[in-house]
Structures are given as structure tokens and as C-alpha cells.
Amino acid sequence: MAFRKRALHLALAAALTGTAALTGCAKNEGSSSSPSPGSSAPPASSASEEAGAGFALGEQPLEFSFYGHYDWYTMPPWGEDLATKWIKENKKVNVVPVSSGGNAKQKMSTMIVSGELPDVIWMERGADVEKLRSEGMLVPFDDYLDKYPNLKKWAGESTLDMLRSPDGKIYQFPNWYTTQPNGNSGYLVNKKIYEELGSPSLETTDDLYAYLRQVKESYPDVVPFEVGQGAEGIDILTSAFAENRPYLYSSLHMLAVPSGDRLTSVFADPVFRETLQLANKLYREKLMTQDAFTQKLEQVEQKVVTGKIAVYAASSPTEFGSKGNAALSSEDPSAGYIIVWPIHKAGLDRNKIFPGDYKQLGWNVSVITKAAKDPEAIFAFLDWFTGPEGQRTIMWGPEGLYWEGTDDEEAPLFTDKFTSDPQGRDELMNSTVNFQWNGNTVYVDRSKTKFESTLPPEKRNWETRWQTEITWKTQYNTTEFVNLAPAGDSDEGIISQSVIEIYEKAKAKAVIGAKSEDEVLAVLDQAEKDAQKAGYDRLLEYKTNKWRDNLKMLNP
Amino acid sequence: MDISGRRKNETAYAKPGPARRFLKQWDIQLMALPAMLFVFVFSYIPMYGVLTAFQDYSLFRGFLGSPWVGFKHFEAFFHAPVFWDVMRNTLVISSLKLLIGFPAPILLALMLNEVRSRIFKRTVQTISYLPHFLSWVIVAGFVSSLLSTDNGSLNLLLQKLNWIEEPINFLSMPEYFWSILVATGVWKEIGFASIVYLAAIAGVDPHLYEAASIDGAGKPRQMFSITLPSIVPVVVVFLILAIGNLLNAGFEDILLLASNPILRDVSDVIDTYVYRIGIENSRYSYATAAGLFKAVISVGLLAGANYWARRSGNSLW
Amino acid sequence: MKLSTGDRVFVAAIYIALAIVGFTAFYPFWNAAVVSFNSGADTLKGGITFWPRAFTLENYRVVFEDARLIDGFVISILRTLVGTACSIAATAVFAYGMTKKELIGRKAYMVACIVTMYFSGGLIPSYLLIRELGLMNSFWVMVVPGLISVWNMIVFRTFFAGLPAGLEESAKIDGCSNWGILVRIVLPLSGPVLATLSLFTAVYHWNDWFAPSIYITNADLLPIQTKLQQILNSNIMHEQLAQMDSSASSHMGRMRSVTTKSLSMATMMVATVPILCVYPFVQKYFVKGVLIGSLKE
């Protein structure tokens, strides 16, 4: 059987060298030789060479491939809805989708190893972008920024500076960036129950506790305090115990509490400890969702929509809240939901309580890869897309349908059809929601509120009303804390993963496992010990340094 | 069935040299060799990927460009503080699944075999395999609303029967988790897994039952002394494969049913742990090392099971 | 056949047990079907059990909104038929060869096959291989790599080995070749196992959405499962968004009468009902005595 063995060796060797050739070239010279799927863009040199003029969108055709790096993201076909059809016809832009197929991580790996990157990747800020950048796969925007007006104008200098990579250049085009506070985080209150119980004061944590007890006595089948999926409401509650303290600090996303000029352990944070003690008390006295850590989102939704909760704290309670408000008030005009001013611990200033936070950089970014034949043309398009005309078109469709003309601030003037045909409008917005890659928060919000303010109060949108009255006023700017997370495969990343595990377990144990408030503290002390053993100090050091870098960029 | 008897003539082949013998049996080699070539191309050529367990593999550098690091990732895996907990959970959960989940479909098949009414039989058969097609997300949704503390059907039932006073938080209590997991798994796969045993039972000679009932053997006797022995070869082969799979305690089911971190002490198995630590943080080599460790142990278990089964004459090789 | 009292009790117990198994298996599926025909907003109120309360086809309308779903359906059926037929044929032949004790290298082949059940190089080497073989974006990428299933081979082999030895011997005396025996004697007697493994393989081909999502970028070639997965995924988008950035979620939020739950139920029904219909046909082959009848011939 010796000959078979030799043959096997041979074939194996051949296979290895074959793949070696492949993987070797993947590093990046590949990008020029292997065109990305569907990017038979304009004649390559044309636009970028004539640097002074820039790319005139709409005059030359532009085609590029677009990949959304999320399991759940599927780009709809371009040009089949009203908005993108208009863009395709009038701006001569065609976007070819590259689907993640529900497997973003693996899809991306295969694209990297085969050297077949798409022209544009839409993804989270942070470690992944930085990896692509440091391997030289991305195109910097610095040369284009001054040539195209919108991003620079709407995002502002400090946001752009925060987007810079360690080499000082900008590679990321932000999405839903903003210069003004926004967000929905807060406390939703069941109006009917509240009024039936005599509309008691609901300002301090003591008020809240008393109210929840009252609810439990009078409404046995109602969950007094709904905390949502994964007990998110407990996070929100931390904001009540200190001024100027967004819950972000002690949430999974940061796990570091600023104290002076350093970031410190979350397990030792008095605010976090006090919050968990209260949560534990609420759990033991059955004033809080008993399924807090196990329920699925649909169970939360069902409770909110059917009015089976008295108070609901969440980072976006308006989502189920507006559905619930519509459902409840249609059956009984006195029923529905209201949002209350954030709860605070007695003695604190209620105007310095921030149950939510926002970041100037917004949510995620688009990057242009070196596979793109004409990156400047793509940038020109993205810049147009984030500008007033692009935003109007993708949010509310082409001119002449739901809006006609603009005011002096370029906000669209909505037509009667906008209010009279909510169904068609929703359908349009549904069909374009997956194209909102470069959302311009300030422009869109301003246009929306301008319009709402012209309506009589009863016609105003429930969600917009509470946003302008409460939630936008009570969100904290946490831009200085972005990008604190280390790369997953770095030493700090490994520590971070261990600390997250310790945190998740400790939180669940403290809330639903502990039999007394002292036991809560014991659980947290043990977690602190375990975390230190896992190297938490080193992680905090890393995060502190990142934070200081951010501060330097924000306040040069 | 006398297996040793039917193979007597094969010693006749043993005389000429190997090459001659090989050519002489070209017809049966033609059945096996093309398939083996196929296995070689699609399974063995890509297998160099397991070596990335000994590298700090980087997508950008490729297989040849990534640095070799020896057993670094294996050491990290073995020295993880939760390693022994994870191993224990893996073995306990999969042993429970084996102990209950393995015989359950056999029992179902045996019971279906006793049903005379064809309509009833086919209906139950078809219905019992439905849950296999429900995704774990949907199943977990059902389980969590069934076991929920507020208005969960099970709690309501137990309260009505006055067995409990306060609702039990089933999905947050470590002591219930293994039972819930195993029960859900059995329920989901029992019908689908029983199909192959039904196929095996279809091969039983009906005359055997007639003879037995003339001898006065009752239904239960027939089930255990005719039907069951006839499907033993199939059962043994599946048992060997199941033992080889002991380190695969489950993944999606655990991920979705053990959403409360408080359960992690009892719910975390190799696959869920590696998923959180390795895949989610793009530590490819770490995940590969854990996978390789699992594969080595699995093949060892399989070989052990096969050795044991050889005595019954139903081994894989 | 007369039954004794003991047998009666025994049989009755079995019927009861089976009825319980049947009901617990049936109810969740039925409930899923009911929810898929109920208005999403109404389902949210809870209490939907055996019958829809606010009947609607809206959920299905949303699923079928994408016209290309029909193409996906055709691709899926083709893939399932071709993939199952090819794989079962190739694997059955392989398995029959492996039953021959005189086969040189039999043990090595077996061990080599079993190793592949546990050791795999992972996605990236496979991807590079498929690419080198020119199978990317081809219908055959859904058929060829899965042609030989080791698991199926083992099951086939076990069943083939259980066939009465006398049949083969007499055929051999009649001058039948090994291939002749396989085609004329072994396969015709293997109805149940052929049916079973065909079902398993068909289910695998029908359900597999992962491989196409990696190897096929041409939307016209995607099977229905991959497309349904995409529909489902983009519908959970909003849920995902809410946890990422509240500004993005407030802008990208949408109001629909369809909820994630009702849509996922409808999607699941579309995805599973066609393959569910296969099983009743398979059961036809589970008839006892096939073997004996042919023995007497």
C-alpha cells in the first residue's frame, strides 16, 4: 500500500501549495487584480485624476458593490422602490448588494482570504474597522472631505476628529451622527393604572417603590416594574442614584466607571451596588418582572401592548410604548402610556439625571475598500446621500409625493398626503429603511419636529411628543467613551471577555439569587476578586488610556 | 442471524499476491475507490485547516503567513478557570441525553409497531416528527412561555392542582435546567430519530410473530424477544456513533434555553464556551484548538465503543 | 388474531402513550400555523391557541412580497431532487462495496471515513477548495460536495449486512456479478432504508441555507431557505437596532401589522410544509414482509 501513501503525500503537498498561492496573494495586491463582484464602475482613472473638479454625481454613471456586515442585514434590490429608483434614474447610481447570508462573520472571512472585498462595507466602528485599516485595505477620505460639502458641514469637526484612525486619517463614514442630544431611554408609565391610583408623585426612588407596592396590591395580574429582556431596566435604574451618570458606565458595553481622571471597577462602584440592592429588593418582593433574565422579547412586547405593566424602564421604551399606546387608547381613550421625568434618589438634582446616552459619532460606519475602482466617486455619493437632498429622498421618497419644495433650511415642506396617507407613507418608509446607511440625525430630526409643531397637539405623533418633551432632554453625551473596547483577540480583549462573564453572572446572582441586601454586596465583592484575578486592572488601565486619548481629540 | 456463517467463502480470496488480488476484485474496488477519492478531495484536502490550532491564525496573513505558536491555544483552553466545569457539564448533559434521548425513539418505534390501525399509526408517525422542523428559536419561545412565572401554563396548572403556592421560576433555577434541556431535546427529535428504527423493524420476518404467538408468547414478550433483537445491529451502530458524539452536548438549544447567566455554572458546555470565547471574539485558532481537542477525544471514545461492540459482532470496522 | 387480556391492556397503554406523544408534538406546530394566519397585532394580545382570532393572509403576503421567492422554490426542489438522487445512489454503491469483507483496504477506508466525521479543516480551506474547483456560483455546489455521506454509508452498510446471506449466494451461483447483485437483489430488498435515507438526505438538502449563502452570490440561484432566512433576518433588524443605538432605531423604526413573531411563523410554514409532505410517501415503504415475498420467488 506504499504507493497510496506516496500519492497522498503528493496530493497533500499540491493542495497546500495551491492554497498557499491563494492565501499569499490575499494580503492585498489582490485587490487591484481581482475586481470585486459587480463593480464594473466608470473608467477607472477618470474622476480621481481630475482631482480639482471632483466627481460630478449624476453626470457620470456610478456602480459599486455594498456589503452590510450584519447577520440580520439584507440589502433589498436597488431601484425597486420609489426612492432608490429615483436615485438610479436621476443620479445614475447603481448599488449592487453583497449579502451576508445570515453569516456575516464567516462571509467576511471568505471575502478577506479570497481577496474579493466589496467596494463598501457597512459595519460597526471599532476593532474590525481598525483591523482592515491596519492591513491597508481601506481608502482614507481626507482628500475628499473638503471637496464635498455635506459630511463636513453636518458632522462637525469634533465628530470627524473622533473618527480618525491612529494614523491620523479618516476612513469611516458615520451613520446617524449628531450634534444634539437624542435617544429614547427612560420610564414608560401605564396611564390608566397611574390615574386610578390617584396619580401619586413619581419622582424619587422612594416614590417609585411605594407606587410599585400600591400597584401590586391593587392589580395582582400586572407586573409592577417591567425591566425588559435581559433585565435591561435595572441598568436604566442606575442613573437614578447619581447625577450626571448615564447607565453606560456600569453596562456591559463599558464596565468602567469614571472617578476623577481614571476609570474604575464597576463592582466597587457605590451607585451600581446600591442599584442592585434595590433591584434585589424589588425582585424578592415580587415588584419586578420575575422572568427578568429569561423572558424573550416577544413576551415583553405582549405585556406592554396589552397593558399588563405599570412601569417599564428600557433604552427604547417608546418602541413598544407607541404600539401599546395606540392599542390601549383605541379601546379606552383614557388608557395609554406616558413617559415620566427620570426617577432620582431623594436629594439629587432631577435635572442632572440621565437615564440614557448618545454619541456624536452615531451608530455605525461605511468604509470604502481598496477594491473600489473609483473611491472618490463613491465618497461623492455617500456625501450626497447624507446631505439634505439625499436624506429627504431616502426618508420620505422623491419630491412631489409626500413633500414638495423645501424651506430656507432645506427641510422638506410636507404635503397633505403626508398626513392623509399614513399607510402609503409607512410602506414607502418600510421599503427604504434598509438603505439608511448615512443617517443625518440633526437634519432628519429638525425636519420632523418642524412639521410636528405645525400640527394640533392631538394629531402629533406620540413618540415625537415624548422625545421632544422628555427623552431628548435627558440623554447624556458619552462621545468621550467611544472605542474603549479592545480587539477580541488581544490580551485585553481576552481579559475583557472574562470580566464580562463575571459581570453577567454576578448581576443575575445579585438580583435574583441573593436572599438579602447584604448578600448582594457579598456577591459583588466576590465578583470584584474574581475580576481582579482575571486582570481587570490591566483592562481598566487600557480603557483609561483610550479615554484620555478621546478627551484630547475632543478638546484639543 | 448467523453472521459468521454467511461470510465463510471469503477466505478463498486469500491466496494470490496483493496486486493480483486487488485487480481481481476490481468490481468491488470500483464501488469503493471513487467514493474514497471523493472523501479525499472534499474532506482531506481542506483538513490542513486543523493545523491553524497551532498558529496565531490571521485572515490577512493566510495559512502560510501566520506564525506558529505550538500548544499555546491548547494550554489557554485547558487552563481556563472554567475548563473543568465546562467538561463536567458537557459530559453530564450528553450522558443524560444518551441515557434518555437514545432509547426514547427506539421505544417509540417499538410502540408504533404494535399499532394495528394504519391510519392511527401513520398519523402519529407523521405528527411526531413535526417538532424536528421547528427551529430552536421557536421551540425556546414555546418553552419559555410555557414555563414563565407570570401566566406560564405549567405554573398555572401546578397552582390549580394546589401542588405549589408560588409560581416556580423554572428557567432561572440551576436544579431544573438539565431536566428541561433533556426533555425538550427528546421531545424535539424523538419522532425523527425513530424513523430509521421503523425502517429496521420493517425488515423483520412476520412469520416469526406467527410462530411466537402459536407458542403462546404475549404481545410484550414478542416485542422484547422478536422485534428488539432483530434491530440490534442498527441499534448498536447508532449507539457507537452516539458515544463518539459524547462531547457534542448541544449548542443552540443550550444557548437559547439557558439565557439566564445564573445558569452558566450548569449550562456551559464546550461548544457554547468556545463560541463565546473564540468565535465571537474572532479568536479562530483558539476555537480550532478546542475543536481539535474535541475531535481527538471523540475518535478515542468511538474507538472504545467500537472495541466493545466488536464482541457483539456489530462493530463499525 | 385474538388478544389476551394482558395484551389488551398492553395495547391500550401503547395507544394512550402514542396519543400523548402525538398531541404534544402536534400542538406547537399547529399553534405556529394558527399564529401565521392571525394578524400580528392581535397575536400580541396573547391567547391564540387552536384557532385564529383575526384571520389574515398578510403575513404570507409579506413573505411572498419578494417575487424571486418562486425562483428559489424551483431551485430548492431541483436541488433536493438532484442532490438526493445523486447522493443516495453514490452512497449506496459505496456502502455495498464496503459490506464486502474481501475488499482490500476495507478497514482503512472505514477509518478514513470516520475520521472525516470529527476532523474538519473549517470553512476557509473548504471555501478555497470550492473556489479552485470552479464550483462558486454554480448549482452543483449544492450537490457535489455532499455526494458521499459517511453517516448514510454506515447506515446503508448496516442494513445491507442484515439481508439474508442466502440470497446473494444463490445469485452468485446463477452467475450474477457483484454489480448485478446490488442492482437486482440488494437494492430492491432495501426499500425501507432507501426510503429513510432518502428522506433524511432530502430534508438536509431542503433545509440547508448555509452553504448557498457562502458559495452563491447570484441571487437567482439561491434556494428558498436562504431567501427566507434573509427575509427573517431583515425583519429582526429592528429588534437588533434597538439594542445598538436608540437614535438609529428611532429613525429606522417601522410600524407594520406584521410582527416578527407572526412573520417568522409564516416563514417557517412556507419553509417546512413542502418537505413535510414527503414523509407520508416514505411510509409506504415501511411495509413488512417485502423481503420475505421476494425470498419465495
Description:
- The complex is a heterotrimer of chains A (556), B (317) and C (297).
- By secondary structure, chain A is α/β, with parallel strands linked by helices.
- Chain A folds into 2 domains: 2-25 and 42-180 and 362-447, Periplasmic binding protein-like II (D-Maltodextrin-Binding Protein, domain 2); 186-354, Periplasmic binding protein-like II (D-Maltodextrin-Binding Protein, domain 2), CATH 3.40.190.10.
- Chain A has helices at residues 2-25, 30-33, 44-49, 82-91, 104-113, 127-134, 142-145, 150-155, 157-162, 191-196, 205-218, 232-238, 270-284, 297-305, 317-331, 375-386, 388-396, 416-420, 422-432, 441-453, 462-469, 491-513, 517-534, 536-554; strands at 62-68, 93-98, 120-124, 173-174, 186-190, 223-226, 257-259, 262-264, 309-314, 337-340, 356-358, 364-368, 403-406, 412-414, 475-477.
- In chain A, a hairpin with a 5-residue loop joins β13 (403-406) and β14 (412-414).
- Chain B has 317 residues and is mostly helical.
- Chain B is built from 18 helices and no strands.
- In chain B, α5 crosses α18 (284-310), α14 (232-244) runs antiparallel to α18 (284-310) and α17 packs antiparallel against α18.
- Chain B is flat, with a radius of gyration of 25 Å.
- Chain B starts with a helix and ends in a 7-residue tail after the last helix.
- With 297 residues, chain C is mainly α.
- Chain C has helices at 5-36, 40-43, 58-63, 69-99, 106-118, 123-132, 150-161, 165-173, 178-186, 191-207, 210-215, 224-244, 246-252, 260-276, 278-283, 290-296.
- The longest helix of chain C is centred in the first third of the chain and has 32 residues, at 5-36.
- Chains B and C meet through α1, α2, α3, α7 and α8 of B and α1, α4, α5, α6 and α7 of C.
Give the SSE layout.
The complex is a heterotrimer of chains A (556), B (317) and C (297).
Chain A: H1 2-25, H2 30-33, H3 44-49, E1 62-68, H4 82-91, E2 93-98, H5 104-113, E3 120-124, H6 127-134, H7 142-145, H8 150-155, H9 157-162, E4 173-174, E5 186-190, H10 191-196, H11 205-218, E6 223-226, H12 232-238, E7 257-259, E8 262-264, H13 270-284, H14 297-305, E9 309-314, H15 317-331, E10 337-340, E11 356-358, E12 364-368, H16 375-386, H17 388-396, E13 403-406, E14 412-414, H18 416-420, H19 422-432, H20 441-453, H21 462-469, E15 475-477, H22 491-513, H23 517-534, H24 536-554
Parallel strand pairs in A: 1-2, 1-3, 6-9, 11-15
Antiparallel strand pairs in A: 3-12, 4-12, 5-9, 5-10, 7-8, 13-14
Helix pairs in contact in A: 4-17, 12-13, 13-22, 13-23, 22-23, 22-24
Chain B: H1 3-6, H2 18-24, H3 26-44, H4 62-65, H5 72-78, H6 83-101, H7 103-114, H8 118-128, H9 136-146, H10 153-160, H11 174-201, H12 206-214, H13 219-230, H14 232-244, H15 252-257, H16 264-267, H17 270-279, H18 284-310
Helix pairs in contact in B: 5-18, 6-11, 7-11, 8-11, 14-18, 17-18
Chain C: H1 5-36, H2 40-43, H3 58-63, H4 69-99, H5 106-118, H6 123-132, H7 150-161, H8 165-173, H9 178-186, H10 191-207, H11 210-215, H12 224-244, H13 246-252, H14 260-276, H15 278-283, H16 290-296
Helix pairs in contact in C: 1-14, 4-7, 4-10, 4-12, 8-9, 12-13, 12-14
